[in-house]
Design a protein that fits this description.
This protein is of the alpha/beta class. It is 30% helix and 24% strand. The structure holds hypoxanthine.
Length: 277
């Protein structure tokens, strides 16, 4: 048997067993037979967007083998398949986070299942803190690139040696920008800093993340991006700015406020999703 060190040295695909992915796909297929090519992972405060799907089939994560249940506030833990603007789409209402104790393999499992279902384009959404002083609460940012400061490395087996030089799809980002122009709202493009949480940042951390090139900071998304890149999916990342860090005039942020403000940005995120689907 290969030693753990040798396994970690090997480049190659995820060690998530193919039959685990197949079992999840079968559970979903038992409820919905349409072929969708776009999926959306709905982050904090955005879950209600899935309620708009017509002809929807809804599965609780508890009924999909291998899907972990989220304990985070306002993450319902349901997969909804249906139609948006007449096009088939799969939406995940809520996600699990590293700070809930999950491994990277568990966090990224839904992405592998989506890829096996035939998804080619993945829209990832999240609530984030604004680091860029030009951002305002309620703004939306397209993620052009990320800085990964999550501390999951010791525990993950998947996504080894995947190149991350071209992760976020510029064509999708341009379509999002065009939708924002049409609907007349501000859409930023910037760098997302991913941290493990679960506490929000200190003033020194907010300052440091801005200095290293971050525009927003949050506790999710990057694990899914790693898996989606490995699976060859086209990726659009969207952050809703729920609070803006002012290290010299700090304002306390609460999880409840984050949920509330993210919901305000929902119509903007919806317009972008409709433009992509
Ligand atoms: N920091 C990290 N995650 C977040 C924040 C923040 O300020 N706001 C919303 N999610």
């Amino acid at each position: 048997m290969a030693s753990a060190t040798a396994m970690l040295e090997q480049p190659g695909p995820s060690l998530v067993p193919a039959n685990a992915v197949e079992a999840a796909v079968s559970a979903i297929r038992a409820h919905w037979s349409c072929e969708a090519t776009t999926a959306v992972i709905l982050g904090t405060g955005l879950g209600e967007l899935a309620d708009e799907l017509s002809s929807a089939a809804t599965l609780s994560y508890a009924d999909i083998p291998g899907f972990a249940r989220s304990t985070a506030l306002a993450h319902r833990g349901r997969l909804v398949c249906g139609e948006l603007a007449g096009r088939p789409v799969v939406m995940l209402q809520g996600r699990c986070h590293g700070y809930e104790g999950h491994s990277l393999d568990t966090l990224t499992f839904p992405v592998r299942v989506l890829a096996a279902l035939g998804i080619q384009t993945l829209i990832l959404t999240n609530a984030a803190g604004g680091l860029n002083p030009n951002y305002s609460v309620g703004d939306v940012m397209v993620i052009d690139d990320h800085i990964d400061l999550m501390n999951l490395w010791g525990r993950h087996l998947a996504c080894r040696k995947t190149s991350l030089l071209k992760v976020y799809d510029p064509v999708l980002a341009n379509r999002a920008a065009a939708a924002a122009r049409r609907e007349d709202f501000v859409l930023h493009r910037g760098v997302y800093v991913a941290v493990s949480g679960p506490s929000y940042e200190t003033r020194a951390e907010y300052r440091a993340f801005r200095r290293i090139g971050g525009d927003c900071v949050g506790m999710s998304t990057v694990p899914e991006v790693l898996a989606a890149t490995e699976c060859g999916l086209r990726i659009l990342g969207l952050s809703t700015v729920t609070n803006v860090a002012c290290p010299d005039k700090p304002q306390t942020v609460s999880a409840e406020e984050v949920v509330e403000v993210a919901a305000i940005a929902q119509p903007r995120v919806r317009a972008i999703i409709c433009a992509i689907v």
